[in-house]
Design goal:
Elements lengths: L4 E9 L9 E10 L2 E11 L8 H7 L3 H7 L3 H11 L5 E4 L2 H15 L10 E3 H8 L6 H7 L10 H18 L3 H5 L2 E4 L14 E4 L14
Parallel strand pairs: 1-4, 4-5, 6-7
Antiparallel strand pairs: 1-2, 2-3
Helix pairs in contact: 3-4
């Protein structure tokens, strides 16, 4: 599990359900674990024919006009993202299973119906929840680590903010990738819901108690 490349992803969407709602913006950032100072980014809007929900406009500041003028076809966006992510990359993100739910549907609908996510994954939210008793939104992690890139609810901005948070985590603990790969924590008072990958452990997690820090040794 010695990953050379990590790709952080973030999607802005029209809602929370991958099988009903749509991705409207993709952000991704790719870097080598041996040199975290050099990275490559990818961003695109995706065409959307319906009017955007007003709540989504308020949160993201993405408008119908922006998608009409700058959006590309969904199939083209899927192919570009698929090509951007190396086959052996570790896929990461803040609450990454939300994004992977949409990624999985995007690939199945536009690349291959039989598509199955086989990448190892790393959830930055799970790491932050394990280490801190503060609230656990991305904006909270940005503040906690004094990251200068704000959490704007725009895909590329949030990917860069997540990257900066992640670098701070690695600076504090070089083993953080090994420790938390393929582990997703969820609040202990409810069951996990959403996409489940067979190679990932989904575990109840109390904040700030390092509940999951030794799971990789089990």
């Amino acid at each position: 599990m010695n990953h050379q490349t990590i790709v952080i992803i973030d999607f802005e969407t029209t809602g929370f359900k991958p099988n009903e709602d749509e991705i409207i913006e993709i952000g991704a950032l790719k870097f080598h674990t041996s040199d975290m100072s050099t990275c490559e980014t990818f961003q695109t809007f995706i065409s959307y024919e319906k009017p955007l929900p007003q709540k989504i406009i308020e949160i993201t500041h993405i408008t119908d006009g922006m998608l009409r003028e700058k959006g590309i076809e969904r199939t083209v966006a899927a192919q570009k993202l698929f090509s951007f992510i190396p086959e052996d990359a570790l896929i990461s993100g803040y609450n990454v299973m939300f994004d992977l739910g949409f990624y999985n549907t995007l690939m199945k609908n536009n690349i291959k119906k039989e598509y199955v996510i086989q990448h190892d994954i790393l959830d930055i939210l799970t790491i932050f929840r394990d280490l801190s008793t503060t609230p656990h939104k991305l904006s909270d992690a940005v503040s906690y680590y004094n990251v200068q890139t704000p959490n704007t609810h725009r895909a590329l901005d949030d990917v860069i903010a997540t990257f900066e948070v992640f670098k701070s985590m690695v600076n504090q603990d070089e083993q953080v990738i090994k420790t938390y790969t393929n582990i997703v924590g969820h609040p202990p008072f409810r069951s996990y819901y959403g996409l489940k990958l067979p190679h990932v452990k989904y575990l109840p997690q109390r904040s700030g108690l390092k509940d999951l820090s030794l799971v990789h040794k089990l």
